[in-house]
Specification:
Layout lengths: L2 H13 L1 E8 L3 E8 L4 E8 L6 H18 L3 E9 L2 E3 L4 E4 L12 H9 L3 E5 H12 L7 E6 L3 E7 L2 E2 L30 H4 L1 H12 L6 H9 L3 H25 L3 E5 L6 H14 L9 E4 L6 H13 L1
Parallel strand pairs: 1-4, 4-7, 8-11, 11-12
Antiparallel strand pairs: 1-2, 2-3, 5-6, 8-9, 9-10
This protein binds zinc ion.
């Protein structure tokens, strides 16, 4: 490399600014370093020390981010986080989280990461970040979009007029805990929520109840369904129908034309789609405008890409 090229490269490096997207879950922390255009320049994953407390989590996320930034020529300008739990996005504090996290509720995540990285940090709930990612770079184009994540539980997020709806308690979009879908007990202790049919955990439980076969995960049940197992097919049919009803209700209430479905269970789209399509024929929004229910496009990158998008829009 000539000295001229090196000098030009150095000048370019000095100018290029970077935005990090950080996905903090209960088992892993994934970071994407992006350019201003959203292109992914570096990526990494480390185990999440969820049992060790918020400070350990912030240390792990910041260390990984710094390592990745060091691999890319440029200067970190901002970072965004998609974090598991209920989040106060203005204060950057975790308001509620599952029991797998130690010293996470009340933790000032934005402040802790700003201190470690020296840049502004935007914090969003992980499902909100998922939806921002899908809208920015994935499946969910539009200004009014429902996001539903079918994972261990069922999470939801709502984009209205191009802005995430957080609600006064940070809990807008929690479609997984809307009632009326079954007579089964939900993880939250109430009865009949969408999550009782549509989460990965529930799909495994519902299949075990029907077939007597225990110890299988949702992906195993999906394989059985593809092989013609009628109990497995019925479980996915019930999940797809419940998801479609929930999306149709949300779309009817706030006038949406797109719902994006992500999370591990959405990988069985071939098994969910027949019931979704059938349900949309009988239970379409009363506006007459067609509701599209579509699978997510970004896979496991959606949360980190959405977190980066949130950082870009807030800084
Ligand atoms: Zn519930």
């Amino acid at each position: 490399m000539s000295s001229d090229v090196r000098a030009a490269d150095a000048a370019f490096s000095a100018e290029r600014t970077l935005v990090a997207g950080i996905d903090i879950g209960g088992t892993k922390i994934a970071v994407l370093v992006t350019g201003e255009d959203g292109a992914v320049l570096a990526r990494g994953v480390v185990p999440a020390p969820a049992q060790e407390g918020g400070i350990a989590m912030a240390d792990a996320a910041a260390d990984l981010t710094r390592d990745l930034v060091a691999q890319v020529s440029g200067r970190l300008r901002a970072a965004g986080v998609g974090a598991a739990g209920v989040v106060d996005p203005d204060a950057g504090i975790i308001l509620a989280a599952s029991a797998m996290f130690t010293d996470w509720v009340g933790f000032g995540l934005a402040a802790a990461l700003t201190e470690r990285l020296g840049v502004p940090v935007a914090v969003e709930n992980d499902v909100n970040a998922f939806l921002l990612g899908e809208v920015a770079a994935g499946a969910g184009h539009g200004s009014d979009v429902l996001g539903v994540m079918l994972g261990t539980g069922v999470g939801g997020a709502l984009l209205l007029d191009g802005v995430l709806r957080h609600g006064p308690n940070g809990a807008a979009g929690e479609i997984g805990h809307t009632p009326g879908y079954s007579d089964l007990v939900c993880t939250c202790g109430q009865i009949g929520h969408l999550e009782t049919l549509a989460s990965g955990t529930s799909i495994a439980l519902r299949y075990a109840e029907r077939s007597g076969a225990t110890g299988l995960g949702a992906a195993d049940v999906a394989e059985l369904a593809r092989g013609g197992d009628l109990d497995a097919i019925a479980v996915f049919h019930a999940a797809g129908r419940a998801v479609a009803l929930a999306c149709a209700s949300a779309a009817t209430l706030v006038d949406l034309d797109v719902a994006v479905i992500g999370g591990g269970v959405s990988h069985a789209w071939d098994l969910l789609e027949p019931a979704i399509t059938a349900t949309l024929r009988t239970d379409a929004p009363v506006s007459g405008a067609p509701l599209r229910i579509i699978p997510a496009a970004l896979g496991s990158d959606a949360v980190a890409l959405g977190a980066a998008a949130a950082a870009r829009s807030r800084s």
